Amino acid sequence: MKRGAYIHIPFCNQICHYCDFNKVLIKNQPVDDYLQALLAEGETRLNRTVTFMDTLYIGGGTPTSLSAGQLQTLFSNLKLAGLSWDERSEVTVEVNPDGIDDDRLYALKDAGVNRISIGVQTFDPTLLETLGRTHSVEDVSRTVARARELGFDNISIDLMFALPGQTIEQWKTTIEKAVALGPDHISAYGLKIEAKTQFYNWLQAGKLAPLSEDEEADMYDILLSKLEHYGYEQYEISNFATRGKESAHNLIYWRNQPYLGLGAGAHGYQNNERYGNILPIPHYLKSVQKGEWPERTRQPVSLKEQMEEEMFLGLRLKEGVHIHRFKEKFDTSFHDVYGQVHAELVNDGLLHEDNGRIRLTEKGKYLGNNVFASFLFDT
């Protein structure tokens, strides 16, 4: 089983209109104190024991809102905390196209980062402005080209669709321009308007018109057909990769495996317990400085809940849920637990079983949330 760690950097140079992640504007924030707190939390969670990580994911927020020197300190502190990685590890950092320069790229390369995930979202200038993004289309091309020149051979691009005012033609153009840059991996998610975002405020005020579910489904259809045409394999509902470039870190999540989470608002899954860290940075810092576990929640995951998660996480993957893994993990047969539900979903054309795996059908991909809900036990 692979070991993974997620590190949250909650700082941004600009707050996007759709984002509900734990983040703050970086100006006047205690960044250096935060980097020291990551060291302290890591030491506590790893019990001051050096632990090899197969995957390391630095997300946010915007990790590259940190200076090159602060990025060096970040990785130095993670190593001091006991996290270990080498060229066998997948080490990912989220990057904004207008917040990355050679100094930062060199700092990442020197730290052993071998995968960058670029937040592009769209190649349409008007829609970039709607989203509150500050980068230009040219920034994206420049970032990809420079990263390649410096030896980054695993580049992912994030896209969004079903954006307010977005047309089918705009979406097709975005996909075409993304593919033209030759990324190794593409993630594409339909917009979900969440509370506590500018989009949500505009929606409540009648100033924002979201696209319909049918329009979103049409855009998803286009995504699937175009990326297949260009040689990208869909390995998860919203993720596509060239051969061998699937996100090893995210596969840990989808395969329902344990992972470490460090930082304000980070989540982790260890010893059949899920925990969530304190969100406000000052409160997180205070807790860590006191030598406490900086958690706001810790919840044991019951056997039934583990089974539920195994299904609705695993079914997101093209590989689906392995029946023999289910048996090994839970010491009971999949069909004994979910036989009736499985039969009904197969009859409805939403699931199929082959080669010892349970997988979504094409129809099932569009109704994924309904399928996942079917595997929840009655409470």
From TrEMBL:
GO BP terms in the entry: porphyrin-containing compound biosynthetic process
Main location group: cytoplasm
Transmembrane ranges, per UniProt, are: none
For this entry, the protein name equals Heme chaperone HemW
Hey, which family's this protein in? Belongs to the anaerobic coproporphyrinogen-III oxidase family. HemW subfamily.
Upper taxonomic lineage: Bacteria, Bacillati, Bacillota, Bacilli, Bacillales
Its biological purpose: Probably acts as a heme chaperone, transferring heme to an unknown acceptor. Binds one molecule of heme per monomer, possibly covalently. Binds 1 [4Fe-4S] cluster. The cluster is coordinated with 3 cysteines and an exchangeable S-adenosyl-L-methionine.
What region holds the Radical SAM core domain? 1-233
Keywords from UniProt, A to Z, are: 4Fe-4S, Chaperone, Cytoplasm, Heme, Iron, Iron-sulfur, Metal-binding, S-adenosyl-L-methionine
**What NCBIfam families does the record point to?**
hemN_rel
- Gene3D superfamilies (UniProt xref): Aldolase class I
An annotated GO cellular component: cytoplasm
Q: What SMART domains does the entry give?
A: Elp3 (SM00729)
Say if the entry is tagged with keyword 4Fe-4S. yes
Q: Which domain of life is it from?
A: Bacteria
Entry's Gene Ontology molecular function annotations: 4 iron, 4 sulfur cluster binding; coproporphyrinogen oxidase activity; metal ion binding
Organism expressing this protein natively: Salicibibacter kimchii
Compartment(s) where it occurs, according to its Swiss-Prot or TrEMBL record: Cytoplasm
Entry-linked PANTHER family: COPROPORPHYRINIGEN III OXIDASE, RADICAL S-ADENOSYL METHIONINE DOMAIN-CONTAINING PROTEIN 1, MITOCHONDRIAL
InterPro entries named in the record: Aldolase_TIM (IPR013785), Coproporphyrinogen-III_oxidase (IPR034505), Elp3/MiaA/NifB-like_rSAM (IPR006638), HemN_C (IPR010723), HemW-like (IPR004559), rSAM (IPR007197), rSAM_sf (IPR058240)
